[in-house]
Formamidopyrimidine-DNA glycosylase (Diaphorobacter nitroreducens), 271 residues
Amino acid sequence: MPELPEVEVTRRSFAGAIEGATVCGIAVGKPLRWPLGMEPAVLVGRRVCGVRRRGKYLLLDLDEGLLLIHLGMSGSLRFARDLPARGAHDHFELITDQGTLRLHDPRRFGAVVWAAGESDPRARKLLDGWGLEPLGEDFAFESFHAGLRAKRSPIKQLLLAGTVVVGVGNIYACEVLFLAGIRPTTRACAIGPQRARRLHGAIREVLARAVERGGSTLRDFSSADGSAGHFQLEANVYGRAGLPCRQCGTPVRLLRQGQRSTYFCPHCQRA
Ligand SMILES: [Zn+2]
């Protein structure tokens, strides 16, 4: 599943190239997770003003309205002037005078949704309720810690929920908790300021590093300019059940939390 770093890398790979483009046409394949929500022909002639990201959504700003793009479980975007003929898994194309933006999504959990603006209920339904943006200026420690203190759920599940901080997927959640020395089952509200500060720093560092390295924890990830993601997370614990912890040698343990695999070191993450 594309995580926040992959989405950000995707954004950077085409945001500059598509800016200022005029929409010439839309091509749609099979239905995606949610319908576009407007007649594709109406988008023709609109200009692309820029591409922003909120959590795992890309916001393609048009001179009138915007498109919200989500990559779902298996989606990837490409933007180029000359793309090969549309294949069976290419379900959306925004054809512009500067190139075509194509969504390739074999499992079709991704979506492209039109909204009149960010306050449009269609946009709010998708964008409201998410937590702080970990790569942005607003990821202040105080707000983050206040968010943790208000919740009794296990910290790992709270991170995955995205309501306090957005975009910390399963792999990253395991890794940042290891770096912060926090047991994944610890209740969020029980995490004191010192450990919360380590966790805050670890989230920022791990996600920023993943973006810098081209973003991928996903085998088949490639950014919109077609270059393959070359970042393989050098996991400390994720996927390493039974193997010695890189820090202390204790075998890494695996447990299930809310149907997701959690990896941790019982020695380095004692409480
Ligand atoms: Zn350890």
User: Anything to note?
Assistant: The pocket of zinc ion is lined by residues 245, 247-248, 250, 265, 267-268 (CB under 6 Å). DSSP finds six helices and ten strands in the chain.
